[in-house]
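Deliverable D5.2: sample structural annotation.
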Amino acid sequence: MRTTNRYADFLPQFYEIRNTKPLDRTKIKPIVTGSTFPLFHLHKDDFVVPFSFLRQESSYIVGSELLNQPLVLAFYSIHWNDYGVNYLEQLESLHADIQVMGGQLLVVSADDRKELEAELAKHNYTFPLAIDHNHQIARGAGIYAETDPLWDRVSGIEENAPLPAVYVIGQSQRLTYTFIDHYFEKEINVRELLSEVYSAGQAQALSRAIA
């Protein structure tokens, strides 16, 4: 009599389980108020929307060259979804006020240029926007790392991206204000940001006067 093992009649199935989390789990460490912001460079071709005062003959612009006025440096990613739309709208509403207070707003993003251009056209944003190639500026700010992906910390995010962050950079690259939203639940404190822009501008004007 033939004996049939009913379990052996089925071929075993093996499933490959891949761990998409990086082996190195070093956490991001955003720089804070009072720190010195790392020096950065931008090529004129990096600008999706340029500063109005940039000279046509200039090929590169160094971050410190923007600091004749307080610089409000904001990071953005299209991967922030609806949060990102609201964030950009808030920056747009602040743009003119920042200038009135004596500062300049610059938004940087590592996203694809065409996608950024489409986003700008859709909403008619007017602030300067530059490409942060390979997240170099965001890495320097401590708000982006492959070892601590955003999608692993915030639900609804499907790609790694920097944290939402806004900095006021004054004399000697010193940070006088920081906004960092770790869990996508805050809005920029408008009064506090504009106050710091004004104070940083006054400090720079005083320094030039006594130099």
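Annotation notes: DSSP finds four helices and eight strands in the chain. Confidence is low (pLDDT under 50) at residues 1-19.
The annotation will be released with the project's public dataset once the embargo ends.
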